[in-house]
Write a structure and sequence with these properties.
By secondary structure, the protein is mainly alpha-helical. It contains 6 helices and 2 strands, in the order H-E-E-H-H-H-H-H. The chain has a two-stranded antiparallel sheet. Strand 1 and strand 2 form a beta hairpin. The longest helix is centred in the N-terminal third of the chain and has 27 residues. It is flat, with a radius of gyration of 21 Å. The relative contact order is 0.08.
Length: 158
Amino acid sequence: MAIALMALSSVFMIMATDLPIGWVRGSGPGGGAFPFWLSAIMFVSAAFILIRELRKRLTRQQALRHFIDSVALLDIGLVVGALLITIGLMHVVGTYIALPLFLAFYLRVMGQHGWLLTAAIALITPVVVFLFFEVTLRILLPKGITEPLFYPLYAFFF
């Protein structure tokens, strides 16, 4: 997995160099700076993980063990399934309905947290996401059938 992450990081770094990765006089960091340096950090982190695991195997022989047990595989399957459903729902009911549903499922079912924490995070996160992406960055996220509900907010913020 570490080798795969290193390869992916390398691809991302190469792709980021299509844009300037250094400081652009008068405007700040170039458009490729954030993806390049984030990918470089990911590459170095994966390299450290690879080195650590190779050292463990060289210093002592470990008994063969399963990479993932059945309980972890079930959890991963549930999360992947929930993410796929969330992505599908985003285009139907919108991000601001699909996101809290996913968070509620993940926190309550997978994390077994209480209803108060689950409700707080599931309700606060979409508000923060809306303010950050739509108001601050002006990046519109999919709203599906709920888009008419956002017209008053657009009139207020824009």
